[in-house]
Specification:
15% strand, single chain, globular, 10 strands, eight-stranded parallel beta sheet, Arginase, Chain A, two-stranded antiparallel ribbon, alpha/beta
């Protein structure tokens, strides 16, 4: 199993007190390195804009980069709601976060290696032409399109257990029967999308969660409303948007998962992958803002990813 990351991903700074901070990635990498998990670390390359343009127009990405300040930070949204920030080190972090997924696709197809992309900024809120929710390029969406174009993969499933709905991923694939998107998320909560009647062309499966629910109820809903329809879809590859902010310790949401639940959730995904997808899975870090919860949950997630290889 491979873990992709890069020091550039630690350099992106969103301002004092911002929840999406470098310490998140620091804690994850330290946790993995101090564990007894046998993984190979690789440095994430920068993605080529030609590949990014499979999802996002080049003009849009170039405009984001043109707005990067020489010093300080600026928000891409209008004040006073700006929380998707650009700093002088943003470009390389953004390109390597997406590039990790492209390298992961190559490892997956050529060498049958499962991969976890330990990168920031995250991606699942990034829409075709709108950066938001701490996200600029939709890493998982670009990987899906790359798999289809480069390796002639027909059907890709994206499973998103971040506590916030992946409005970007849904928007990008809303009318595309070749990509199924299943998301479990607290509702209502930022970004406000992800109602269960948002079904695309029968390829979108939203599982809304009420604030305060605990492990057993979460897993029951996740199985029924996300995994069961995705199993019927029979994907050739599964991509995971792995957010750990449904943890009971997370400050930005109100779902009460335990760290060990992320092993259970991941193992259930792997079971589907082993039946329909030749075991082919890539996971991308999304949210998760409590450092202790992240450190614990990421180990559980990787243990789940390593099952039945």
């Amino acid at each position: 199993m491979i873990v992709y990351s890069h020091p550039d991903c630690l350099l992106k700074f969103n301002g004092q007190g911002h929840p999406e901070r470098k310490e998140r990635l620091d804690s994850i990498l330290k946790s993995i390195k101090s564990s007894d998990l046998k993984v190979k670390f690789k440095e994430a390359p920068k993605v080529d804009l030609e590949i990014v343009s499979l999802v996002h127009p080049k003009k849009h990405i170039k405009q984001i980069f043109a707005n990067i300040p020489k010093e300080g930070i600026i928000g891409v949204e209008k004040e006073p709601y700006a929380d998707t920030m650009l700093c002088p080190n943003s470009e390389n972090a953004i390109l390597r976060s997406c590039g990790s997924g492209i390298a992961a696709c190559d490892d997956l197809i050529k060498n049958n290696e499962r991969v976890f992309c330990a990168v920031r900024p995250p991606g699942h809120h990034a829409e075709t032409v709108r950066a938001n929710g701490f996200c600029f390029i939709n890493n998982v969406a670009v990987a899906a399109r790359y798999l289809q174009k480069k390796y002639d993969i027909g059907k890709v499933a994206i499973i998103d257990f971040d506590v916030h709905h992946g409005n970007g991923t849904q928007e990008i694939f809303y009318k595309d029967k070749s990509v199924a998107y299943g998301s479990s998320h607290e509702f209502p909560l930022f970004p406000g999308t992800g109602a269960e009647n948002e079904t695309g062309v029968g390829n979108i499966y939203n599982a809304t969660l009420k604030a305060g629910i605990k492990s057993k109820e979460f897993i029951n809903i996740f199985e029924k409303k996300v995994l069961t329809p995705l199993e019927k879809f029979k994907p050739e590859v599964i991509l995971i948007s792995a957010g750990f902010d449904a943890h009971k310790r997370d400050p930005l949401a109100n779902i009460n998962l335990e760290s060990s639940d992320f092993f259970t959730i991941t193992k259930k995904i792997i079971e589907i992958a082993n039946i329909h997808s030749k075991g082919r899975v890539i996971s991308f870090l999304e949210g998760g803002y409590d450092l202790q919860a992240l450190s614990e949950s990421i180990i559980e997630h990787l243990k789940g990813l390593k099952t039945h290889i």
